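Q: Sequence in, structure out?
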Amino acid sequence: MTTEAGTLLLDTAARLFAQHATPAILAAAERGEFPDAAWDAVAAAGLPLALVAEEAGGFGLPMAEALALLQVAGAHALPLPLAEAMLAHWLLAGAGLTAPTGVVTLTADPALVLRREGAGWRLHGVAAAVPWARTAAAIAVLASHDGQSFVALPSTGFTVTPGENMAREPRDRVAFDAALPASAVAPAPAGIAALPLHAAGAVARSLLIAGAMDTITAMTVQYAQERVQFGRPIGRFQAIQHNLAILAGQSAAAAAAASLGAEAMAAGLRVPAMAAAKIRAGEAAGIAAGIAHQVHGAMGFTYEHRLHFFTKRLWAWRDEDGGEAEWSLLLGRHVAGRGADRLWAEITAL
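A: Exactly. Output:
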């Protein structure tokens, strides 16, 4: 059950996102224009700190409630690194590091090497597809040293090569060769390593997917009620009604999966349940995007129609932070490793 503070936060976020995620702003973001005014408004509202404890400057909300912000962001196709900033601030706060003012993103690319260098550290290597690295004031990096996970916060010592995902959101290649003072590196919070953080990213994507699917479903139902063919709205044809029912069912399934993932993350980073959430949300995303474009017909494929802002994000987010194949393999190995006698217990534990 959502607390009063959580409800207020989500309502505030919905109004803010509606103002700063218009089709014109989304189109400008696709052209490479970072929406500074939108970021300033989101930052002023404190949303990037939503996962941070109150004493550290956050809202102090239960984690699952704070994560629900991402479902609202997905429902508006928000062209900002809110998910990355929330996870980065959560990671940094847990390690006792303070992020600078501005956009903060994160990476846990296994290609990165962290080693001691005198009284400080050196971070070296190349990270692929770092979200919004080109706009970041700093990048929170999770890396290992001697089998222990550390969080590093380089603000210089890296070069960025621009890239993008299918939705034309920035996904940049970052080459690190950063000398870091001891104060910029700290042990990772308890329980945080590469896999749990990867799973946290998967939960974030699941929530974004669920939000985008809410909007796609509403948009498609409305179009089916308004588009007239053979003298009546196409939504009255049985075949269209059947597809709309499937779309609504997939949207509900994605929302339930995302909620499961958020609860599993809040309950101590239970990776199998977090993996299951991304698997189901990703599957739903593919089905939903296909049906939405089928119902919209040729109109839905035009750039002028806003449907593509959402379906492109579904296709991109489905693959990011692990697709269904990756997480299904991990989940299958987990269940198989528990043995046949534990199968039902493992299923119900999700």
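DSSP finds eleven helices and ten strands in the chain.
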